[in-house]
Request: fold
Amino acid sequence: MLKQEKNYDALRLSNQLCFPLYAASKEIIKRYKPYLDEIDLTYTQYITMMVLWEKEKIGAKELGEKLYLDSGTLTPVLKTLEQKGYVTRHRSNEDERTLLVQLTDPGRKLKEKAVTIPERMASACMLLTPDESATLYTILYKILKK
Amino acid sequence: MLKQEKNYDALRLSNQLCFPLYAASKEIIKRYKPYLDEIDLTYTQYITMMVLWEKEKIGAKELGEKLYLDSGTLTPVLKTLEQKGYVTRHRSNEDERTLLVQLTDPGRKLKEKAVTIPERMASACMLLTPDESATLYTILYKILKK
DNA sequence: CACAATTTGATTGTGTTCAATTCAATTTTA
DNA sequence: TAAAATTGAATTGAACACAATCAAATTGTG
Reply:
């Protein structure tokens, strides 16, 4: 009997779904960089501001849940945004454990500059059809739903 | 005439495609962690080994291109894998600038342990139908194709 | 051959990212 | 109510991740 070669196909990089997901995520963030450099925000700072542009005031915990970031990541991000003058950080009166993050006027103003970014990103880098975008969106949120 | 409110819909986190991509990527890597802990590899080390399991010997530059990683990331990863005894790092004879990374026997052995990971990940975490997986795969590589 | 331009990997600096731990505040339970 | 458990943020440590820069080697051009 011939020695049977074990089947390692499952370990081929090209057979992984995790890998193109990981690579595409980094690739998109990289493509954002030139636009985000214009308003001097990193990607993480940008998505944080996005939440605040929708909801002026929010607890740090809820913010972290929306962004899928834990406190170890979010704490320095929020401190940087505070230094830049875009947010304030204060403890809640009801519960001193809770940190409330609030948008400032300069933070609100930044929204005006940022509003052109999604469209410019789309026209410059979005090679997907509307149909593909919608499908991708649905599948990704299915993964996140857990 | 009523003051027209500017349309900020494009800046809503829920309207971004980049964000679920970013979040899902991190989420999947997190789900891998328990399995990768068993063989004491990080995700980055794991995908690096994956390439080496397919191609025993490879230049650092080509490796970085396959993994979408630059030298600043790859150099410490390769040094760690060398310390763990899974790879060797040597300069090429033809071109002293080129770093050749080669799989060792322990590195090859690790493949045996790793081979169960993709299937266990799939059954534990993969809530996508085969059809969805295939679609996701295609779209992600379309993004990466650039 | 000479030398500028290019290529390649390594280094440095900044910014995440998360697990684990700590600490204070709050809530639950005995 | 007092003790125990829980919660929320901050801190720490290890590992990415990439831009910018550097040094060494090779290549291209006259």
Remarks:
- Chain B touches chain A through 55 residues (CB under 8 Å).
- The beta strands of chain B are 57-59, 87-91, 99-103.
- Residues 29-115 of chain B form a domain with the Arc Repressor Mutant, subunit A fold (CATH 1.10.10.10).
